[in-house]
Specification:
By secondary structure, this protein is α+β, with helices and mostly antiparallel strands. Helix content is about 35%, strand content about 20%. It contains 17 helices and 20 strands. A seven-stranded mixed sheet has the order 16-17-15-14-18-19-20, sandwiched between helices. Helix 15 links the parallel strand 18 and strand 19. Helix 14 packs across helix 15. It binds 6-deoxy-beta-L-fructofuranose (LRH). The site of 6-deoxy-beta-L-fructofuranose has 14 residues, from helix 9 and strand 15. It comes from Nesterenkonia xinjiangensis.
């Protein structure tokens, strides 16, 4: 079987990238074709995503990838993944032309999940269906921004807004529709809406009806490994004169990240650490019990019908938002590696541990002030210097990870003797060591690009370049990437 080349469009909450992958039975090589910033746009009516900008960057990046792949047989397919839960609303428009296939047009810029509007939506949903029942149906942890709460906040359950909306598409599905004209709901990301039944992995139409949502609000669910379609004719000039097949991958970035994690045994846990730290296990069966609900563990749909049994712990967001605050205050860029070095020197006895799960830390804004307020309320000393605050955040994130690992082991009845840390956080040695120390488990760090790797592996398997189960695909990662192991020091 030959080596094939694929382009992964991987959009994270703080940056996006287009990665070109050369994949074969003995080959896994990644090159970054493009990287661009992403973040909330503060509009008068709330926090939005600049999705048109992201689409433009993705298209330019794909053009770069096509050029880079040209001399080696070109690109076989494209796959898209992004953060979960957020969506665009579309209306059916009349006078369409060929560049608006199906006549579906985006109604306004999609909301950012950190927008505060969701509180009213939570109440509206739980009034109709209490949380304990919701959990039994969808198996999802409570996150105030799960799609169903956002839809309720948008007054889509009833009322005039609902009538105007023809369809809702999650972010990767929307970009896929813009690329190909075809609309599907990719299964792993659909599972984060709260509207997919955990047993059937299909839309829970009864739940949707009880919530007052139109049954056809989302398109048909399609599994990773399905071909969505070819890029539209109008895009050909941007893509080196070609039409590229778009393949559905685990379009939830966390689903792709776990495909790209070289889990060594079924007892190995993972932490996919970027903006969020997604801490948990890959399971064949969902765990939907009172105990898992109380510990706020989720059963998100994974690739190949597996379950991502995990919980969201606040991740590097706490650090990046702190640095952003200091940047605004001083007008100078802050260097995380330098700050982390200084943070390591802070004496252990001076380290304050905060509860990183406190909801006050979710919205963008002045993070040091919020940490200070938390400390005052809890009679803890406020970290007095920048290194002390950075150390407090790193150790507090690690403490959150350690607790989640214990919970995962207990709830799924697994030993959890090793933890794979992947994503951006795997480069943070202080965080990896603190996680090993606080959890008492070996932390195996890397690959940093697990998400792009997972995206590319599913494309390559769909193309017939690779075959087998996820374990077979992960073998390739084990052979091509060398992880760094952190052992517990106490
Ligand atoms: C990580 C992630 C996570 C979701 C959150 C909204 O990027 O997809 O899995 O909970 O974003």
């Amino acid at each position: 079987r030959p080596v094939t080349q694929h382009a992964a469009v991987d959009l994270g909450a703080s940056s996006g990238r287009v990665v070109l992958g050369r994949v074969g039975p003995d080959t896994l090589e990644l090159t970054e074709a493009a990287r661009f910033a992403n973040g909330p746009v503060h509009l008068p009516d709330g926090l939005r995503w600049n999705l048109l900008g992201l689409f433009g960057h993705a298209l330019t990046g794909l053009g770069e990838a096509v050029r880079a792949a040209e001399d080696d047989g070109g690109i076989t397919s494209v796959g898209i993944d992004s953060w979960a839960v957020d969506y665009g609303l579309l209306a059916r428009t009349a006078g369409t032309n060929s560049s608006a296939p199906g006549g579906l047009s985006l109604l306004g810029a999609p909301f950012h999940y950190r927008d505060g509007r969701t509180a009213a939506g939570v109440q509206a949903v739980h009034r109709r269906v209490p949380f304990a029942e919701l959990y039994r149906r969808n198996g999802l942890q409570f996150l105030p921004f799960n799609t169903l709460y956002q839809l309720a906040a948008d007054e889509l359950l009833t009322g005039p807004a609902a009538a105007a909306v023809e369809q809702a598409l999650l972010v990767p599905d929307l970009l896929g529709q813009w690329l190909t004209g075809e609309a599907r709901a990719e299964a792993t990301n659909a599972s984060t809406t709260g509207l997919v039944n955990v047993d059937t992995q299909n839309w829970d139409l009864e739940l949707m009806e009880r919530l007052g949502l139109a049954r056809g609000l989302f398109p048909e669910i399609a599994a990773p490994g399905t071909t969505l379609g070819e890029t539209r004719d109008e895009l050909t000039p941007f893509l080196g004169g070609q039409r590229l097949p778009v393949t559905l991958v685990g379009s939830h970035d966390t689903a792709s990240a776990i495909v790209g994690t070289p889990l060594s045994t079924p007892d190995a846990a993972y932490i996919s650490c970027g903006t969020w730290g997604l801490v948990g296990l890959e399971l064949e069966q969902a765990v939907v019990t009172d105990a898992s609900r109380e510990a706020n563990f989720t059963n998100e749909g994974g690739v190949d019908g597996r379950f991502r049994f995990l919980t969201n712990v606040m991740g590097t967001w706490l650090l990046s938002e702190t640095l952003r605050t200091w940047e605004r205050e001083t007008g100078r860029a802050q260097d995380l590696p330098t700050l982390l070095e200084a943070a390591e020197q802070v004496p252990e006895a001076d380290v304050v541990i905060i509860d990183v799960q406190d909801e006050r830390f979710v919205p963008p804004g002045d993070m040091p002030a919020r940490v200070g307020a938390w400390c005052t309320e809890h009679d803890a000393p406020t970290p007095a210097s920048k290194p002390a605050l950075v150390r407090c955040l790193v150790e507090s994130i690690a403490a959150g990870f350690a607790r989640a690992l214990d919970d995962a082991a207990r709830l799924a009845e697994r030993r959890v003797d090793v933890v794979h840390m992947v994503g951006g956080g795997s480069l943070n040695a202080l965080l990896c060591q603190a996680t090993a120390d606080r959890s008492g488990r070996d932390v195996v760090a890397g690959p940093v690009e697990a998400t792009a790797i997972g995206n590319l592996l599913i494309q390559a398997r769909t193309a017939g370049t690779l075959s087998g189960e996820l374990e077979d695909l992960r073998e390739l990662i084990t052979r091509s990437h060398s992880p760094v192991t952190y052992r517990p020091r106490r």
